[in-house]
Prior knowledge:
By secondary structure, the protein is an alpha+beta fold. 33% of the residues lie in helices and 24% in strands. It has helices spanning 10-26, 36-49, 90-101, 116-124, and strands at 2-4, 53-58, 61-70, 74-81, 108-109, 147-150, 153-156. The chain has a five-stranded mixed sheet with strand order 1-2-3-4-5, sandwiched between helices. The chain has a two-stranded antiparallel ribbon with strand order 6-7. Helix 1 crosses helix 2 (36-49). The radius of gyration is 16 Å and the shape is globular.
Amino acid sequence: MIVKLSKDDGNRLAPLIAKFRAELKSYKGITAAEDIDAAQEEADEFLTAGFPIYIYEEDGKYVGYIVCKEDGAVWVEQLYVLPNHRGKGIAGALYAAAEELAGGDTLYNWVHPNNDAMIRFLAKRGYSTLNLIEIRKPYQDEISREKICVKNNEFDY
């Protein structure tokens, strides 16, 4: 069942955010512990700012969520489903709720280039247009492991 979160639900959302953040770090080869305090702060910030958040509840437990941001367009800030609940249509149901929020229009997504599962998920939903690339200076002592080419441009990654 999909539920839209209220401001009082941050403590139930935080454990999922902590897992999401640890998984994101793993895409860069970083092993990280789940930081529940930072996740709680992030959940509270989302809810205080009024970001629409939909959660998938199964047997009284939160097993997935999607955080959206509305600023003329609807951005998917986070989409996460617990690993043992993947492949059951939960992410699709959450994404459909977000698309409904966007009036059936497209959603905008920031996707980590190593997040093959999310890229495949979006492709199955008809998302294929790349229109933004985030470019930044390397952090101090950051070592890029590979190069990525987009058209005639090569980027460190």
